[in-house]
Amino acid sequence: MIRLRVTAPFATFRHFATGSFRPTIDFITPSAAFGLLLNIAGVEMRGGEGKNGTTLIQKGLPPIKLAIGAIKFPEQQEILQQLHNYPVGTTRKEWKPFTKGSKYNILPVTRAFLSGIDAIIAIDSPDFEEKLRNSLEGKTQRKYGLPFLGDNSFILDRIEETTPSLPAYWYCCLEEPLIELDKQRINRFTITIDREDMSKTRTALFAPTKERISEIPSGAWVEVIY
């Protein structure tokens, strides 16, 4: 098993959402942690293009069993932005010729994000751990962009292997309530994402342990398999 401590000033973890408010989930989700780990290990997860122009996720990626803990909980912030986009349907179509192929709609939106990320991601997948360690130690040639947390503007401060003694609030699935959880912090976390058919996206309700503990509860382990 390997435990990684991840710190970052900002992050965001979004459900698929449209409209003038873009919320964030309260902490790192298994799907986001999976993407971060593959990024660090230099494993390409992007597949071909879907029917609607969406970048799909490859099949046959390394399965990873992971658990997520908060050393401290981040704060939620909001920012108001002018979002440039290609609108759905015929909205603002009269502006399209003037922008010469660029995005022709402007929409004021409020985006939520997190500040002060201090997390542990534990991985129990022996075949993948060696690849991850080699990448962290600079022993492999990595052809991938900078690791980020939910938005490519939100890059990490540090990611490093930590000791099993460092305690955390471990996020556990509510379907396996084998330990007392903080029910004031229940969140729906994404585990796997199907960008072509959202009904096949896998989610579950999670809540953190009431106390910071070193031993990872069995209910915190999640298998991310594509």
What do these coordinates show?
With 226 residues, this protein is mostly beta strands. The chain has a single domain, classed as Alpha-Beta Plaits. It contains two helices and twelve strands. The strands form two sheets. Strands 1, 2, 5, 6, 7, 8, 9, 10, 11 and 12 form a ten-stranded mixed beta sheet that branches. α1 packs across α2.
* Helix-strand pattern: EEHEEEEEHEEEEE
For the largest beta-sheet, the strand count, sense and barrel status come to: 10 strands, mixed
Structural class, judged by helices and strands?
mainly beta
CATH fold-level name:
Alpha-Beta Plaits
Q: Kindly report the oligomeric state of this protein.
A: single chain
Number of folding domains?
A: 1
CATH class bucket: Alpha Beta
Radius of gyration: 19 Å
Give the helix tally. 2
Helix fraction? 10-25%
| End-to-end CA span | 21 Å
Tertiary shape: globular
Summed over residues and divided by their number, the pLDDT gives a mean of 91
CATH architecture: 2-Layer Sandwich
**How many beta-strand runs?**
12
Strand fraction band?
Answer: 35-45%
Organism: Aminobacterium colombiense (strain DSM 12261 / ALA-1)
InterPro entries: CRISPR-assoc_prot_Cas5, CRISPR-assoc_prot_Cas5_N
Protein name: CRISPR-associated protein DevS
Keywords: Antiviral defense
